[in-house]
Design a protein that fits this description.
- The structure holds 2 protein chains of 2 kinds.
- Helices cover about 75% and strands about 0% of the residues of chain A.
- Chain A is mainly α.
- Chain A has 2 domains: about 10-60, no CATH class; about 75-310, MetI-like fold (Orthogonal Bundle), CATH 1.10.3720.10.
- Helices cover about 40% and strands about 15% of the residues of chain B.
- Chain B has 20 helices and 16 strands.
- In chain B, strands 3, 6, 14, 15 and 16 form a 5-stranded mixed sheet that branches. A 5-stranded mixed sheet of chain B has the order 8-9-12-7-13.
- In chain B, helix 3 packs across helix 16 and helix 19 (about 430-445) packs antiparallel against helix 20.
- The interface of A and B includes residues 152, 171 and 265 of A.
C-alpha cells in the first residue's frame, strides 16, 4: 500500500514514514506527540463523561432496579414521563428558578463589581473581593441548613428583624408562593461571588482610552454603562449566563436540604425528581429518561444562548 | 470415692465427631466463625458507629480475628438512609449488616437484599438464647420485622408515637398531665389553652407541633380516627416463631408472617377527618408551619418552652436531657382516644445482607447486639435511653430514672395495653410512598389544597404507584 506521496505504509513502512528526516516527517511526529498528550484527557472524557451519557441514553429504554435483570420497555419511560404531573411541575419550577437565579446573579454581580471597581483603596478592594467570594467556598449543604434556621417562619432571625420593622411573618419555606424566591435568594447569595469576580476582572480589562473617548463624546452615567461598559463586558456576561444556566438547571442541594421539594411540589426541581426516581425509588430506567430530557433541555438552552450571543456579544 | 470418670482425649474426639455428624445429619446449619482475619462491614445511621462501638468491642473480645468496620450513612429520616444504602449497593459496595427501621424492612426484604433469618434462628444450637430473647420482646415488634412469613431483623429498638408534654407549659396554663384515657377533645382543649399569641396575632408559644414524615407526623391521628394509608392484612406463615417461641403468650394470638399493605385508602373519610383536624389547628395558629425533618428543630422549641405537646417515642427521653431539660420538666402519655386508641409504632434492627462476605461473623454480631450484653453496653440504652429498647427488661422505669419521664411505663405499655397497635404502613415500595405522603401532607398543611383535595390526589398517586409494583405479596 502506498500513500499519495508514495511512502510505504504498513509493517516497517509506518516507522519509516514517521521517522523520515524531512519537514513532513517532523510535522507528523509533532502531530502524533500532540495526540499522545491529548489521549489521557480524551480517554477520561470518553470513559467518565461521554460513556455514562451514552449508557444513560440506553438505560432510559429499560425498566431496571439493579437487583433484577433489566426489561427492555422501548419508550415506555418517556411515555410515563410525559404524563407525570410531578415531572411537569418540577421542570416548571426549574425553569422559574433558572430565570430568577441567573438574572439575579448577573445583575447584582455586575452592580457589586462596578461598585468595588470604583473603590481606590487597595485594602478595601481586597476586603470586598474576599467577602463576596467567600460564600462560594462554603459547603452548599451547610449553607442550606443554616439558611433553613434563618428563614424559619416563627423563630428565624430574619422574620424577627422584619417584625421589628412592622413586617408580618413571611412563610419563607412553607408557602408555595414564597419558597422558590427563598431558594433564589439563598442560591444568589452563595453564587454571587463567581459572577462578581468575573465582572470585576472584565471591568479591569476595559481600556481606559475607550472610556475616556466615551467621556469626550459626552457619554456619561447610564449612557456610558449601557453603550460602552456592558458591550465591552458582554463576553463575561455570556460566560456567566451560560455557566449560570447550566448550574441553575441542575439545582439540587439547596431545595433538597432546606425544603425537600415542599410544600407540596412547590420547590421540587428536575434533578430532585431524577434523584428520587433513580436512587430513592430504584427506577434507574425512569431516572435515566429524566436525565436525558434534562440533558436535552440544557443543550437547547446553551445552543439558544450561543445563537443569540451573536447579536449582542462584542469581542474586542 | 467418686464415680466420675475423666474423659480421655480419644473419648473427647469421638464425642466431637459424633456431635458434628449428628448436627450435619439433622440438617442444622452449623455456624463456624473463621479463624482467619475477617472484616465485617456494618452499616449504621448517623452517629451509631460511636454508639455501637461497645457492641463491636464485645465481638472483637470474643473473636479477636474479627474486625468491625462501620459504614456510616446519614439521612434526615429512615427512607433517606434506605435510599443511600440502595445507592451504595448500586455502586458496587458491599455490606454485611445493614440497619433498617420498619420504614425499610420490607424494602430490603422485597428486593432480596436482606436474608431471611428463620433457619439461622431455629438452627442455632444455642436455643436458650432465642427463647430468652423472644420472651423479652413483644410479639408485635417481631411481626413487624417479618415479610411473607420470614423474619428479617431481630428487633433492637422501637418507638411508638406517644404524646410528650412540657410540664412547665402545662402548669403555667393550669393543666395537668392527662390520664391514659384522655380523648381527642381533651387534646384540642390543652393545645388551644397552651397556645400564646402576641398583640399582632402571631403565635409566640405553640400548643402542638409535629414534623412532616411517615412516623409520628399526623399518622397517629389517622390511626386513632380509624384509618390508614393502606389496607392492613397479615401474611400467612410465621408459625415457627409463634409456636416455637411464643406458645401460650396471648399477645401472639392471631399473628401472622408480617404485614401486607395492598390497597391504598388514603382518602377515606377517617383520614380526611384526621387531616382536617391538623389543618384546623394550623389555621388557628395552635400549630406552626409544618416542615420536613426528623424533629431536631422541635426538640429545641420544646426544651425552651415554646411548645407544649408533640408526638415522640422513648427516644426523646435521653435527648431532651441532652437539650438541658431536667427530670420532671416533661412527661408522656398515650395517644388520645378518638374512635379508638390504636397506636402506631416503628421498630428497628440490623439485617443480614444476602451478599454478605462474612455471613457467619455478621450473624454473630447481630446476635451480640440483641443479647443482654449488647443491651447492657450499647450507648443507645446507656447511660440514658436514646431509643426505646425492644427488650422489655431494659424498658422498665429504672431505665428512665435519671431522665424521666414519670410515665415511662407508657412506652412498653403501648404494646402491652393496646393490642391493636401496629406498625406504620411500610410496604416494599415505602420510599416513593413516603414521598407521596409527605407531599400530599404539605399540600394541605400549607393551604395550597383542601385536605380532601390533597388526599384525593394522594390516593390517585398511591394507586398509580401500587399498580406499577411487581407482585411483592402472595395471593393468600
Amino acid at each position: 500500500m502506498t500513500t499519495a506521496k508514495g511512502a510505504e505504509v504498513g509493517g516497517g513502512g509506518i516507522l519509516h514514514w514517521l521517522l523520515q528526516d524531512t519537514m513532513d516527517g517532523m510535522r507528523r511526529r509533532r502531530a502524533i506527540l500532540g495526540y499522545l498528550f491529548l489521549l489521557p484527557t480524551l480517554l477520561g472524557i470518553f470513559i467518565f463523561t461521554a460513556g455514562p451519557v451514552f449508557v444513560s441514553f440506553g438505560l432510559s429504554l429499560f425498566r431496571w432496579n439493579i437487583f433484577k435483570p433489566p426489561d427492555y420497555v422501548e419508550l415506555a419511560n418517556y411515555q410515563r414521563l410525559m404524563g407525570d404531573v410531578r415531572i411537569a411541575i418540577s421542570f416548571g419550577n426549574t425553569l422559574k428558578f433558572t430565570v430568577l437565579a441567573v438574572a439575579t446573579q448577573v445583575s447584582i454581580g455586575l452592580l457589586l463589581a462596578m461598585g468595588v471597581h470604583r473603590i481606590t483603596q487597595t485594602a478595601m478592594r481586597y476586603y470586598f473581593r474576599t467577602a463576596f467570594f467567600l460564600p462560594l467556598l462554603m459547603s452548599g449543604a451547610a449553607v442550606a441548613v443554616v439558611m433553613g434556621y434563618i428563614f424559619h417562619k416563627e423563630f428565624g432571625p430574619l422574620n424577627y428583624y422584619l417584625g421589628l420593622m412592622g413586617v408580618q411573618q413571611i412563610p419563607w419555606k412553607t408557602s408555595a408562593d414564597w419558597v422558590l424566591i427563598t431558594i433564589v435568594i439563598m442560591s444568589a447569595w452563595r453564587n454571587l461571588g463567581f459572577t462578581f469576580v468575573l465582572f470585576l476582572g472584565g471591568l479591569s480589562n476595559i481600556s481606559r482610552e475607550v472610556l475616556d473617548a466615551a467621556d469626550v463624546d459626552g457619554a456619561q452615567g447610564f449612557r456610558r454603562l449601557w453603550s460602552v461598559t456592558i458591550p465591552l463586558l458582554s463576553p463575561q456576561i455570556l460566560f456567566a449566563a451560560v455557566t449560570g444556566v447550566i448550574g441553575a438547571v441542575q439545582v439540587f442541594e439547596e431545595p433538597f436540604i432546606m425544603t425537600r421539594g415542599g410544600p407540596g411540589n412547590a420547590s421540587r426541581t428536575a434533578v430532585m425528581v431524577l434523584y428520587e426516581a433513580a436512587f430513592k425509588n430504584i427506577e434507574y430506567g425512569y431516572g435515566s429518561a429524566i436525565a436525558v430530557v434534562l440533558f436535552l433541555v440544557i443543550l437547547a438552552f446553551t445552543v439558544a444562548q450561543m445563537w443569540m450571543s451573536r447579536r449582542w456579544v462584542f469581542y474586542q | 470415692m467418686s464415680n466420675e470418670k475423666k474423659m480421655s482425649r480419644r473419648d473427647l474426639l469421638k464425642l466431637a465427631a459424633a456431635g458434628s455428624t449428628g448436627l450435619v445429619m439433622s440438617g442444622l446449619p452449623v455456624r463456624v466463625i473463621a479463624q482467619d482475619s475477617v472484616t465485617i462491614k456494618v452499616q449504621t445511621a448517623g452517629l451509631d458507629d460511636n454508639t455501637l462501638q461497645p457492641v463491636a468491642d464485645i465481638m472483637v473480645a470474643r473473636h479477636p480475628n474479627v474486625n468491625v468496620e462501620w459504614v456510616v450513612l446519614t439521612g434526615i429520616d429512615h427512607e433517606e438512609v434506605a435510599a443511600k444504602i440502595l445507592a451504595l449497593v448500586a455502586a458496587g459496595e458491599s455490606i454485611d449488616v445493614g440497619y433498617a427501621a420498619t420504614e425499610a424492612c420490607q424494602l430490603f426484604a422485597g428486593q432480596g437484599l436482606a436474608a431471611p433469618l428463620d433457619d439461622l434462628v431455629t438452627g442455632d444450637p444455642d436455643q436458650d438464647f432465642w427463647t430468652d430473647f423472644f420472651s423479652d420482646v413483644h410479639p408485635s415488634l417481631v411481626e413487624a420485622m417479618m415479610y411473607e412469613g420470614s423474619l428479617y431483623e431481630p428487633p433492637r429498638d422501637f418507638n411508638a408515637a406517644n404524646m410528650y408534654f412540657n410540664t412547665n407549659v402545662l402548669a403555667e396554663n393550669g393543666f395537668d398531665v392527662p390520664g391514659p384515657e384522655w380523648t381527642k377533645d381533651d387534646f384540642v382543649e390543652i393545645a388551644r389553652g397552651t397556645t400564646k399569641k402576641d398583640d399582632a396575632g402571631n403565635t409566640e408559644a405553640f400548643g402542638y407541633a409535629w414534623t412532616n414524615r411517615l412516623w409520628g407526623s399526623w399518622m397517629p391521628w389517622i390511626f386513632v380516627a380509624g384509618g390508614n394509608l393502606y389496607t392492613e392484612e397479615r401474611a400467612p406463615g410465621g408459625d415457627w416463631v409463634w409456636d416455637g417461641y411464643y406458645d401460650g403468650d396471648a399477645a401472639a394470638d392471631g399473628r401472622g408472617g408480617g404485614f401486607r399493605w395492598r390497597e391504598p385508602i388514603a382518602n377515606s373519610p377517617e383520614v380526611v377527618e384526621a387531616l382536617q383536624l391538623n389543618v384546623d389547628l394550623w389555621q388557628e395558629g395552635v400549630t406552626p408551619d409544618i416542615e420536613m425533618g426528623s424533629g431536631q428543630t422541635l426538640t429545641g422549641f420544646y426544651s425552651t418552652g415554646l411548645l407544649c405537646m408533640t408526638p415522640a417515642g422513648g427516644f426523646w427521653a435521653g435527648r431532651l436531657g441532652n437539650e438541658g431539660m431536667e427530670k420532671g420538666e416533661f412527661d408522656v402519655q398515650y395517644w388520645p382516644n378518638w374512635r379508638n386508641q390504636k397506636h402506631q409504632f416503628g421498630t428497628g434492627g440490623h439485617w443480614l445482607a444476602t451478599v454478605a462476605a462474612a455471613p457467619d461473623e455478621a450473624w454473630e454480631f447481630m446476635k451480640i447486639e440483641v443479647s443482654h450484653e449488647g443491651f447492657q453496653s450499647s450507648q443507645f440504652f446507656n447511660p440514658v435511653i436514646i431509643t426505646t429498647p425492644s427488650r422489655r427488661s431494659y424498658s422498665q422505669a429504672n431505665a428512665f430514672e435519671s431522665t424521666g419521664p414519670a410515665n415511662s411505663d407508657v412506652f412498653y405499655g403501648t404494646l402491652d395495653d393496646h393490642p391493636s397497635t401496629s406498625p406504620i404502613p411500610a410496604p416494599p415500595w415505602s420510599n416513593p410512598m413516603t414521598t407521596i405522603f409527605t407531599t400530599g401532607t404539605s399540600n394541605a398543611m400549607s393551604g395550597a389544597m383542601s385536605p380532601k383535595d390533597a388526599l384525593d390526589q394522594m390516593q390517585q398517586e398511591l394507586e398509580d404507584l401500587t399498580a406499577r409494583q411487581p407482585q411483592y405479596y402472595g395471593d393468600d
